[in-house]
Structure to design on (240 residues):
């Protein structure tokens, strides 16, 4: 395993090991974990778990949920397992190193209530591919496509199960079209803006498997205040 850093999260309540030079989680993952909003006793599936940050946040805030983190990259899955063990969350979190396209119901003890994903968001032949393979796979559709993510969620979710995802605002039509084509009806969207007067950079999308049509557009989520500090809402998101 390469050189790892240890980052403190939730005022030291969670310790997160990450590669110093490879893929590192961003605020997108933290926002997604906040908006996942699971119910007690939910079984949750995190598609592309990376270092396991989203399962750890969810497990810390929701002590009764069970979470499966799926990661195709062996080194990242090993780091996620290390994080789960060192934070004493083995009873809640299971990390599986595999291609999500091969995932079966027996891997998660049946269908799941909630599927979430912060997936690669750049098409495989668009833009510069990062020379660091770990970062490249996390950012570009090399090992998995948007279709793979949404279809896996559909396959693994129970009827009326929820799917929550963070994605670039510029690809909003791609995700909405794919969700509906896969039988996951988009139910809510929230735009994420760096600052109040900037264009949306990301969107948080929630859908329901087999849901009826009808979508709500939430209030914009602003990350930074004018002085460069986090907005009040984002400050709240980072508190344990």
């Amino acid at each position: 395993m390469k050189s790892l850093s240890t980052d403190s999260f939730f005022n030291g309540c969670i310790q997160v090991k990450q590669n110093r030079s490879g893929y590192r989680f961003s605020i997108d993952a933290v926002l997604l974990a906040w908006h996942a909003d699971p119910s007690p006793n939910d079984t949750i599936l995190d598609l592309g778990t990376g270092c396991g940050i989203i399962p750890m946040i969810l497990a810390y805030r929701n002590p009764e949920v069970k979470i499966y983190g799926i990661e195709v990259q062996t080194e990242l899955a090993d780091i996620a397992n290390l994080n789960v063990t060192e934070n004493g969350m083995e009873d809640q979190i299971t990390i599986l190193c595999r291609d999500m396209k091969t995932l079966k119901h027996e891997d998660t003890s049946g269908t799941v209530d909630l599927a979430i994903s912060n997936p690669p968001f750049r098409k495989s032949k668009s833009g510069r591919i990062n020379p660091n393979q770990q970062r490249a796979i996390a950012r570009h559709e090399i090992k998995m496509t948007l279709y793979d993510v949404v279809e896996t969620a559909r396959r693994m979710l129970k009827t009326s199960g929820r799917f929550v995802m963070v994605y670039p605002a510029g690809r909003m039509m791609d995700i909405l079209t794919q969700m509906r084509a896969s039988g996951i009806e988009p139910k809510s969207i929230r735009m994420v803006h760096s600052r109040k007067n900037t264009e949306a950079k990301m969107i948080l999308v929630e859908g329901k498997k087999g849901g009826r049509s009808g979508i709500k557009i939430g209030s914009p989520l602003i990350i930074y205040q004018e002085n460069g500090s986090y907005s009040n809402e984002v400050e709240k998101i980072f508190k344990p």
